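Notes from the 1:1 (GR / supervisor)

We went over the backlog. Supervisor wanted to see one worked example end to end before approving the batch request, so GR pasted a single chain during the call. The sequence is below; no edits were made to it. Supervisor asked that the structure be written out right there so they could see what the output format looks like.
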Amino acid sequence: MLEPPEIADEVERLSALCRLNLLDTPPDERFERITRSAQRMFNVPIALVTLIDSNRQWFKSHAGLALAETPRRIAFCAHAILNSAPLIVGDTRADPRFADNPLVTGAPHIGFYAGIPIHDTGGWRVGTLCLIDHQARHFSSADVSALCDLAQWAETELNLYSLKQATAICHEKESRLQAIVEHAGDAIVTIDDKGTIETFNPAAQRIFGYRPEDIIGQPIMRLAARHYRAGLARDLAVLAKNGIQNGKSLNRQVFVERSNGERFPANLVVSEMRINDRRAFTGLVRDISNRRRSSEDVKRANRQLAETLGLQQAILDSTRYAIIAVNLQGKPTMFNAGAQRMLGYTAADMKAHGSLAVLHDPAELAARGAALAAELGHPLAAPADAIVANARDGRRDESEWTYVRKDGSRLPVMLSVSAVWDEQVLAGFVVIAQDLSERKKIEQLKNEFVSTLSHELRTPLTSIRGSLGLLAGGAAGAIPTTAMVLLDIATKNCDRLVRLINDMLDVEKIESGSMRFEAVVQPLLPLIEQAVAATNAYAAQFQVSFDLRADAGETRAAVDTDRLLQVLINLLSNASKFAPSGDVVEVRLRRLAGVARVSVTDHGVGIPEQFRDRIFQKFAQADATDSRQKGGTGLGLNISRAIIEKHHGTIDFTSVPGMRTEFYFDLPLASEQP
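Structure output shown during the call:
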């Protein structure tokens, strides 16, 4: 296939095509009439008015053809515009230039082509009027002459359309310019080369206090302050003779005068224009009297701003926290002195790196990014997006990360990430990092102390509990009644201390990751029944009973029997303690979407709203006074949450103070286990 060659003046030809303002415009009946006439006159199925763009052939009118355009490299019309002579291809299948052209071998199956170039007013060949037949045919010289007449018609319409468009554009620009002049806030005055005022816009009327009929036709000197008029006359004489050099505007500050004689400072910008081979000038006058009056206020405000900024910078530099600001692309824009001391990088280092990722452990960043992408349901654009994605979506983001210093050492930090908004538009993010190294060391020492103390206390407490049991059982002889009361108090408090130590050891195992879980798929209802039976005696001392109900059918989940019983007994005993005397605690097992829900509801005093965020923390008690009366270590719910989360479940509660409290946990059904 022969592709059309390059045209020598293609840039100029394309510029002429663009000036027609015809490409991609809606159908026009004037051109449709031409192609319909061509169809009827030559009895052909397809007649087109085409425009040849840089890489396509676009049809302004395409009678008989559904396509709106084709690539230029296969277009017959791209060959037709190479010169002004008609291009007639009687049998395309016998012409080696076009025999294998896709428009011949495929739709629209061109067998015959006749195209006449059409020109713009400058003589550039911008398109064609062409005929297409599916079969080869003879095209006489009379046919060519007739087609040339139709092409001349199309050319006339094309250029008339262009003129009409140009006129409309000119009118539109004139209207816009007039609107700008009429509504401008500055005075706009035009004068001729003799200094006579020709136009005076509404802002000029307002600023100077003249009506148009009073000032138009008057010399421009009337608007100048008296001591400026002589100098203005000399400047006008020079402008009238030489114009404004280099086509630039004149910009200066002057004093002008209102109609009432009041003088005021103004900024004057003078531009030159040509009207019928003569010079004219436009002056834009802006009243700057308010600007001068407020200059001292501006200076004072600038001083206050400088003091405020200095104070802010001093605060930023003195804090122990690392404070880092980044733009929307994640590039650091601020790196305070605290960050430099903490991490060893300078502000210049961070700008050179161009990302917060350099501060993070790569493996941790990748893992957080993968988890966040799974939560959001779409991949992150870059690894560093894991740091700011929650803040970008308006979610609170405060979490622990591992920072890597410039020397390669690592430190744990608590990152608080916030979005920065500029009038409802997201402008960037601020990252505040707190070094957790000392806190981690203290926590480790505390945990080691608690673990050691708990282990060391367990052995003597076991001996004490055994000895108290022997004494109470009469191993040392009969115990007086008064001594038995004291022995019973000691036994109960010893039991309470054993429970506290066991709970503390459980917490230590959970935090160290050494607590073993052996999950087995099994029905949940028997475990709940076992927990209720184990707690019945404890609940009876508070005159509380249990009402257990479950959804029909077997509800199964993969659980560690002992650990789940520990959670159930904890929730049941808590409900028993805080339920009013005579209450019935509701225990329910339900199947929800993909999970089994176990709930325990009492009708006691409830949990205060201000305590909600701390209910699952270690040693948490909603009411310290009441907890002493009821007993408990304050560790049960913390341990329960850890156990449920190890089962890939969730635990939570709802409470209406003075009416009811419901604790519930959800476990994945056996078929839904991860």
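Supervisor's comment: The chain has five domains: 10-167, 184-293, 321-433, 440-512, 520-672.
Batch request approved.
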